[in-house]
């Protein structure tokens, strides 16, 4: 991430501190430069994983634009006497990036979700934005022996914007390792966006999103998958943020 981009450093990871408009302007700049460039979103879970996995922390440090996602990061920033300007989560920002892609005639490929889900998301996007060129869609469940074939498929589609929804840290690692080989200019690590767009996972009511408690809605829908992440992971993240603040350092003993 460019040194002149305003940021907040949390648990050793530098996260951009931008308005929505400025974030979109930076994404447009990255696209127009020709890439390959990666845009990703950091939430409490992302930074918890990076805290205990140095390789993932390194990947995040090399991402071209890392944006803040969720109330956990907002609270952690306040613990440092700082603040983010907006909640720039992938589910809300990705449609705006796709609007940008449409205006530039960019070719978009969706990679993520279970079998058939990316195709459902493709059809949904075609109805909403018929001028958006979505040139391919594929499941994000890729066997090791399939990687080269997937890269060839994305490259053969002459993809400009690769939207990857595999969950973190897998999606960020995948883009860091393979984006250049796909020939795409821009890689977006978007988490559950493809599932939401396909309609296989419901979003919370707007009022919950505005209050920063969308996680409660998702926990109710998927308690077994998300229970530990939210009920244990979120308090752990805030504890780590507080301890690093008190220690005057960005990393302390893992725990």
Give structural notes:
This protein is an alpha/beta fold and 255 residues long. It has two domains: 7-198, no CATH class; 206-247, no CATH class. It is 53% helix and 15% strand. It is built from twelve helices and eight strands. The strands form two sheets. The chain has a six-stranded parallel beta sheet with strand order 4-3-8-7-5-6, sandwiched between helices. A two-stranded antiparallel ribbon has the order 1-2. The longest helix is centred in the C-terminal third of the chain and has 25 residues, at 223-247. The radius of gyration is 18 Å and the shape is globular.
Provide a concise account of the structure shown:
With 255 residues, the protein is α/β, with parallel strands linked by helices.
């Amino acid at each position: 991430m460019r040194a002149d981009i305003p940021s907040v450093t949390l648990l050793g990871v530098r996260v951009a501190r931008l308005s929505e408009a400025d974030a979109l302007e930076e994404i447009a700049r990255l696209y127009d430069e020709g890439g390959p460039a990666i845009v990703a979103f950091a939430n409490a879970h992302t930074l918890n994983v990076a805290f205990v996995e140095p390789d993932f922390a390194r990947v995040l440090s090399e991402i071209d634009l890392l944006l803040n996602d969720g109330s956990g990061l907002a609270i952690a920033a306040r613990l440092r006497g700082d603040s983010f300007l907006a909640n720039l989560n992938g589910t809300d920002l990705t449609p705006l990036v796709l609007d940008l892609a449409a205006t530039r005639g960019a070719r978009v490929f969706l990679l993520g979700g279970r079998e058939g889900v990316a195709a459902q998301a493709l059809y949904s996007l075609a109805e909403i934005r018929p001028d958006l060129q979505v040139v391919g869609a594929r499941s994000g469940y890729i066997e090791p022996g399939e990687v080269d074939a997937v890269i060839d498929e994305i490259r053969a589609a002459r993809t400009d914007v690769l939207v990857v929804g595999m969950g973190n840290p897998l999606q960020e690692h995948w883009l860091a390792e393979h984006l250049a080989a796909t020939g795409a200019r821009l890689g977006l690590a978007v988490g559950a966006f493809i599932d939401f767009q396909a309609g296989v996972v419901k979003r919370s009511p707007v009022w919950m999103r505005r209050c920063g408690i969308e996680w409660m809605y998702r926990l109710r829908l998927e308690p077994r998958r998300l229970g530990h992440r939210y009920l244990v992971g979120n308090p752990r993240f805030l504890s780590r943020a507080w301890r690093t603040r008190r220690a005057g350092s960005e990393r302390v003993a893992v725990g």
